[in-house]
């Protein structure tokens, strides 16, 4: 006889979670973190607020879990077998993440909120910054193992160099990535980081 889920136990349905996730991203893009509300997300997702609270305990937990899932999932860098290839894949993935139609406005708003809230900043670093940097670190460690990068490289500075030019150009300068920009950036990073 098949086992039944105990009465009263929450069963999280994946399609509802996807609907909520989509609603969170839409609300963040349109309203920003400060004006995000559980009520608005529930209404947009077509669920009751209890569906949100079964998944997350607060607005902050909900928003950051969704943003982290979106962000870290876009940090899968392919092992191409060379420093140049890995950096090119990495800067392409970073550019796609930062230029995503919805996420570009979410990130700018989230960075502004982080400046006002050290607690939020710490959580964002734990959930998004550190996992993305760990994937970048893997690129550099592979290059060290292949002898393409010196083992005494300043790892933190090198990781900053991978993402900072794209972030600066897109979000601070409000510029665009014209054809050839990522190729030129890759070439410059390989020269800067390589032996």
TrEMBL record:
<keyword id="KW-0804">Transcription</keyword>
<dbReference type="InterPro" id="IPR036271">
    <property type="entry name" value="Tet_transcr_reg_TetR-rel_C_sf"/>
</dbReference>
<dbReference type="Pfam" id="PF00440">
    <property type="entry name" value="TetR_N"/>
</dbReference>
<dbReference type="InterPro" id="IPR050109">
    <property type="entry name" value="HTH-type_TetR-like_transc_reg"/>
</dbReference>
<dbReference type="InterPro" id="IPR001647">
    <property type="entry name" value="HTH_TetR"/>
</dbReference>
<keyword id="KW-0238">DNA-binding</keyword>
<dbReference type="GO" id="GO:0003700">
    <property type="term" value="F:DNA-binding transcription factor activity"/>
</dbReference>
<dbReference type="Pfam" id="PF16859">
    <property type="entry name" value="TetR_C_11"/>
</dbReference>
<dbReference type="InterPro" id="IPR009057">
    <property type="entry name" value="Homeodomain-like_sf"/>
</dbReference>
<feature type="DNA-binding region" description="H-T-H motif">
    <location>
        <begin position="37"/>
        <end position="56"/>
    </location>
</feature>
<feature type="domain" description="HTH tetR-type">
    <location>
        <begin position="14"/>
        <end position="74"/>
    </location>
</feature>
<dbReference type="GO" id="GO:0000976">
    <property type="term" value="F:transcription cis-regulatory region binding"/>
</dbReference>
<dbReference type="InterPro" id="IPR011075">
    <property type="entry name" value="TetR_C"/>
</dbReference>
<protein>
    <submittedName>
        <fullName>TetR family transcriptional regulator</fullName>
    </submittedName>
</protein>
<keyword id="KW-0805">Transcription regulation</keyword>
């Amino acid at each position: 006889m098949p086992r039944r889920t105990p009465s009263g136990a929450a069963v999280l349905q994946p399609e509802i979670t996807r609907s909520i996730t989509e609603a969170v991203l839409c609300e963040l893009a349109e309203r920003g973190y400060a004006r995000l509300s559980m009520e608005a997300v529930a209404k947009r997702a077509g669920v009751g607020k209890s569906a949100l609270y079964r998944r997350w305990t607060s607005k902050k937990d909900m928003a950051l879990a969704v943003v982290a899932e979106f962000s870290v999932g876009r940090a899968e860098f392919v092992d191409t077998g060379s420093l140049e290839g890995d950096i090119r894949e990495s800067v392409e993935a970073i550019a796609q993440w930062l230029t995503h139609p919805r996420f570009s406005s979410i990130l700018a708003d989230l960075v502004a909120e982080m400046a006002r809230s050290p607690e939020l900043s710490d959580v964002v670093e734990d959930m998004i910054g550190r996992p993305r940097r760990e994937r970048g670190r893997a690129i550099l460690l592979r290059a060290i193992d292949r002898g393409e990068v010196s083992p005494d490289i300043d790892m933190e500075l090198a990781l900053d160099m991978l993402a900072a030019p794209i972030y600066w150009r897109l979000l601070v300068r409000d510029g665009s990535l014209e054809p050839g920009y990522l190729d030129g950036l890759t070439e410059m990073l390989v020269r800067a980081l390589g032996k």
